[in-house]
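in:
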């Protein structure tokens, strides 16, 4: 790709934010401003020196090793009663899946979940999340402590340990397993969604580009599944447009919508190549499960001569753009916590009240096929004993309530998971688990 002038770039091709001398200072600066405005304005103080990631120690020349991650998380886990590191599963190859909890455990606190590097060959998200965990765990300033007193931050720093170890997407595509729950990783994330009911789900990835139309430092996308409550989708779009993308631009990174090719001259969309409404992707599944969800993708490929000549420069840009996006996320949470809580509560209440149609396909930017619309959804679905034996665990992991029904089970729709249930049990849904018998005698 020819060298091009890009906004916010220094002459050597680095973003101005990335052009500082030490990566550690950059990382702390990103997290130190992550709450913006009245929140973090300086480096986090610590009772003792915080550990550094392997990525920081190498100045971006290599990624943090699994041993380095274990050591860092062990240190963070000793930071007191506001921090814990829990094992939430074990991969097919025997590696632990970990959840870090930082902040308030009180009822009414807003809960934010960050899921990092579902694909093992997308390491920048993992590095950003390890840095975030460390800096929040060691923060001593009042602004951060006040924020964490009202917010619980949940982080799955390595959502695909087997893939990370191999440098691949892993044994299977975890980000296509949030309906079937065939993988240990998908089941672990489903458990977190069920047990913690996060208000916001932030899904961090990386992408490979096809220049010149798909070449942004950072791209984002909200849930497109048509069953996501409009209030949640509106909040996710607001999070993207007013917080995450401006934060990226302020840090010297350009930003766009994931899956949308844009003309490099006019900036207008050319076509959409990715980002549909399929329900087994995390941003869509989380939205159907009543969270404000957002996908964030940093670009893997180098964009400048400096990045092509030195992979460490490219790696730093990838991680820093992710950290900048987290700055926008935290600003959003702080400024709109009341609106977020109201939107997630309204979405759950609408499900329990049994209102509105359910769509078995389509996306928010396309009209559904006539056969995809359940204008009058059934009262519930009946499962045989054999059928329930096959999918009962998965229904429980999804937080779907059922009750005995003769020799089998009955899954009523009048529950918060109302718009999820047909996606699991209706034969017409693309990723359904089993063919349930629709009960229309309401």
């Amino acid at each position: 790709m020819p060298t091009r002038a890009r906004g916010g770039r220094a002459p050597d091709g680095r973003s101005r934010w990335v052009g500082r001398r030490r990566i550690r200072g950059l990382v702390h600066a990103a997290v130190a401003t992550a709450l913006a405005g009245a929140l973090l304005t300086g480096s986090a103080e610590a009772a003792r020196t915080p550990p550094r990631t392997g990525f920081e120690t190498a100045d971006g020349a290599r990624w943090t090793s699994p041993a380095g991650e274990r050591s860092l998380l062990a240190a963070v886990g000793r930071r007191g009663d506001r921090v814990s590191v829990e094992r939430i599963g074990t991969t097919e190859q025997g590696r632990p899946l970990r959840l870090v909890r930082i902040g308030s455990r009180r009822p009414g606190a807003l809960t934010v979940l960050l899921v990092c590097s579902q694909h093992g060959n997308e390491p920048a998200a993992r590095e950003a999340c390890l840095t975030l965990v460390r800096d929040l765990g060691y923060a001593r300033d009042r602004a951060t402590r006040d924020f964490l007193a009202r917010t619980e931050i949940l982080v799955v720093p390595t959502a695909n340990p087997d893939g990370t170890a191999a440098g691949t997407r892993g044994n299977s595509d975890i980000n296509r397993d949030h309906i079937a729950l065939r993988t240990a990783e998908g089941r672990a994330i489903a458990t977190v969604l069920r047990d913690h009911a996060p208000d916001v789900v932030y899904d961090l990835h990386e992408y490979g580009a096809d220049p010149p139309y798909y070449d942004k430092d950072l791209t984002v996308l909200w849930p497109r599944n048509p069953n996501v409550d409009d209030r949640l989708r509106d909040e996710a779009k607001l999070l993207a447009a007013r917080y995450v993308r401006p934060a990226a631009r302020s840090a010297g990174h350009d930003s766009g919508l994931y899956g949308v090719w844009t003309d490099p001259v006019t900036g207008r969309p050319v076509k959409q190549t990715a980002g549909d409404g399929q329900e087994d992707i995390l941003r869509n599944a989380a939205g159907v499960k009543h969270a404000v969800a957002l996908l964030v993708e940093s670009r893997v490929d180098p964009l400048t001569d400096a990045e092509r000549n030195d992979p460490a420069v490219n790696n730093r840009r990838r991680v820093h753009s992710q950290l900048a996006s987290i700055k926008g996320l935290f600003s959003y949470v702080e400024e709109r916590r009341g609106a977020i809580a109201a939107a997630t509560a309204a979405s759950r209440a609408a499900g329990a009240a049994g209102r509105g149609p359910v769509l078995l396909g389509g996306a928010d930017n396309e009209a559904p096929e006539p056969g995809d619309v359940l204008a009058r959804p059934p009262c519930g679905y009946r499962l045989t004993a054999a059928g329930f034996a096959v999918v009962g665990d998965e229904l429980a992991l999804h937080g779907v309530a059922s009750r005995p029904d003769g020799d089998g089970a009955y899954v009523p729709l009048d529950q918060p998971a109302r718009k999820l249930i047909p996606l699991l049990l209706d034969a017409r849904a693309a990723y359904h688990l089993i063919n349930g018998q629709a009960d229309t005698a309401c």
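note: The radius of gyration is 22 Å.
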